[in-house]
Automatic annotation (TrEMBL):
It is an enzyme of class 2 (transferase). It holds the Pfam family Thymidylate_kin. One of its GO terms (molecular function) is dTMP kinase activity. CDD domains: TMPK (cd01672). NCBIfam families: DTMP_kinase. This is Thymidylate kinase. Residues 9-185 form the Thymidylate kinase-like domain. The keyword Kinase applies. Belongs to the thymidylate kinase family. Its EC number is 2.7.4.9. Gene3D superfamilies: P-loop containing nucleotide triphosphate hydrolases (3.40.50.300). It comes from the Eukaryota.
Length: 216
């Protein structure tokens, strides 16, 4: 049996990640796949509650301390993510370590320093980047009340995301319709899953998880 695929959706605020994640989960379920949604930050854990207090301006925290909390919030999910993937469940993940680096670097922290705490996290099998110009994000009803929802910061975040872009990323134009984006994302994901299933039938060795996020 092929292990589950780790499908990541990254992007700027207002790009439609959460909508696309739930549409993707529903479409994969409808096609008979075992699939779960996983969202970062996960605000339900003890660490996640501290992050929530910070994001909603209920608590002040040093930039580096909060960066480490976001990273710890991903690390605390790793055992469960590993278990699910190895049991054959696909995971659709809403934000991950790229958001961690993009937001903290945009706030002025050093890019390499920001990558370090996330080194060794499980690497996604497929990363979509939903790209939306900040002016368009603003047009979509403006930003909300949370700490990072400000035009100037969002512009810097997008710049860092584009700096982090690798050739493995699938770029999605988030100005397109919800349906058009969904079609592209689903097509790429199904292809990834089919290739993995075909490979698993031929392979003599296990298809291992790669725990090398940001390793050089
Ligand atoms: P969301 O729940 O997806 O709306 O994310 C909440 C906010 O937190 C959003 O403005 C993006 C930001 N964010 C998400 N992940 C990270 C992270 O790892 N580090 C930092 N500094 N910010 C993050």
């Amino acid at each position: 049996m092929a292990r589950g695929r780790f499908i990541l959706l990254e992007g700027c605020d207002r790009a439609g990640k959460s909508t696309q994640c739930s549409m993707l989960v529903s479409a994969l379920k409808a096609r008979g796949h075992a699939v779960e949604l996983c969202k970062f930050p996960d605000r339900t854990t003890t660490i996640g509650k501290m992050i929530h207090a910070y994001l909603t301006n209920a608590q002040e925290l040093d930039d580096k301390a909060v960066h480490l909390l976001f990273s710890a919030n991903r690390w605390e999910a790793m055992q469960s993510i590993r278990r699910k993937l190895l049991s054959g469940t696909h995971l659709v993940v809403d934000r991950y370590a790229y958001s961690g680096v993009a937001f903290s670097t945009a706030k002025g922290l050093d890019l390499t320093w920001c990558k370090n705490p996330d080194r060794g996290l499980i690497r996604p099998d497929l990363t979509f980047f939903l790209d939306l110009p900040t002016s368009e994000a603003e047009r979509r009803g403006g930003f909300g009340e949370e700490r990072y929802e400000k035009r100037e910061l969002q512009e810097k975040v997008r710049d860092v995301f584009l700096q982090l872009q690798s050739k493995e990323w699938v770029m999605i134009d988030a100005c397109k319709s919800v349906e058009a984006m969904h079609h592209e994302i689903l097509k790429e994901t199904e292809h990834k899953i089919q290739v993995a299933e075909a490979d698993a039938k031929l392979a003599e060795e296990d298809d291992v998880l790669v725990e090398d996020m940001f390793q050089d």
